[in-house]
Specification:
globular; 47 residues; two-stranded parallel ribbon; alpha+beta
Length: 47
């Protein structure tokens, strides 16, 4: 799922898990979600 979808689901109350090859991008998305009051975490993987 993309960053926009992750932010949308989090805004609706979902706890979001993000998997990305780029840890900086994933951390930035998690930070945006948390700043907006949502819950998120990330893991780095190349799947």
């Amino acid at each position: 799922m993309g960053g926009a979808a992750s932010r949308l689901f989090a805004a609706e109350g979902a706890q979001v898990g993000i998997v990305d090859r780029n840890s900086e991008a994933a951390a930035a998305t998690v930070a945006e979600i948390k700043t907006a009051g949502g819950q998120a975490m990330f893991a780095v993987a190349d799947v």
